[in-house]
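Reminder: ligand-aware prediction takes two inputs, not one.
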Amino acid sequence: MVKINRKSYPFLIITFLYFLLGFVNILFAYLAVACMIIPFVMVSRTGKKPWCSTYCPRADFLSLFRIFKSSRKAPAWLNSDNTRKLVFQFFCINLFFIVMSTFMVSRGQMEPIEYVRFLIAFTIPVDLPQIWAGPALPPWAVHLAYRFYSIMFTSTVLGVVLASLYKPRTWCAVCPVNTLSTAMIRQITVSEGNE
Ligand code: SF4
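Here is what comes back for the chain with iron/sulfur cluster:
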């Protein structure tokens, strides 16, 4: 489980801003890439999870759900290795679809999907207004931006549902970033042990 070392929640605003900026221009959805790279750079440099313990904006956001004062423990199956693996595999499949569909859009083999989806398949029936026209992007870049927004939306909704039912950071137990960080740390520990 991730150790929490927060005295305040300064990064909370970033989660709100991220989703709001999607209404301004979908280009801002690319900020998600930082959340997909920085945690692993930190793990490789420190052998620990400073992203999870200190910097993750989503963790700050989910901590807001303390207001429900729910102390219900998540069921054992939710914290199991099998569930962790399943969630991780789902996000890998999601990434695979993102890469393949972006490639196909870039080749003109499919139309860009310019709306948000939940869990890959379910379309959210809300158009993001795009208040700022922004720079002209090729169709594949617009498609990819919506896909990043969708992946962040999906994981945030899942986190919120779990935080509402159980403890605020229940999502962290199955978060793919946590799963991969743990695997990296194990690998680092094994390599250091072999030296
Ligand atoms: S486990 Fe995921 S949601 Fe939780 S702090 Fe780490 S990166 Fe953020």
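The helical segments are 12-24, 32-46, 50-55, 57-63, 81-106, 139-165, 176-194. Residues 2, 39, 51-52, 56, 58-59, 171-172, 175, 177-178 surround iron/sulfur cluster (CB under 6 Å). We will return to this case in the review session.
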